[in-house]
Amino acid sequence: MIDMTVKTPRNVQLIRAENAGFCFGVRRAANMVQKLLDEGNRHIFTIGELIHNPPFLKRLEEQGVSICSVDDIPDLAKRFPDAIFLVRTHGLPKEVTERLDEWKVRYVDATCPYVKKIHRIVSENSSPEIATVIIGDPLHPEVEGIRSYAKGAVTVCTDEVELENFCRNNAEFGKNGIIIVSQTTHSLKKYENCQKIIKNLYTNPKIFGTICSVTENRQTEAGVLAASADVMLVLGGRQSSNSRKLYDICRASCPATYFAESVEDVPFSEIAALLRQSEKDTFVAGITAGASTPDDIIEEVNIRMTNEIAINSDATANENPVIQDSMTFEEMLNASYKTIRPGERVQGVITSVTPTEVHVDLGIKQTGIIPNSELSFDPNFKVEENFKVGDKIDVVVVKFNDAEGIVNLSKKRMDVDKNWTALKDAFDNGEILDGKVVEAVRGGVIFQTGPHRVFVPASHTTLPRSENAPTEEDLQKLVGNESRIKLIDINEQRKRAVGSMRVVIREERKALQAKFWESAEVGKEYDGVVKSLTAYGAFVDLGGVDGMVHITELSWKHIKHPSDVVKVGDSIHVFIKALDAEKKRISLGYKTEDTNPWNIFTSKYAVEDVAEVKIVSLMPFGAFAEIVPGVDGLIHISQICEQKIQKPADVLAVGETVAAKITAIDEENKKVSLSIKALLVPEDGAEEVVEEVDAAEADEATEA
Ligand code: F3S
Question: CA 314: distance to chain centroid?
Answer without folding.
Answer: 56
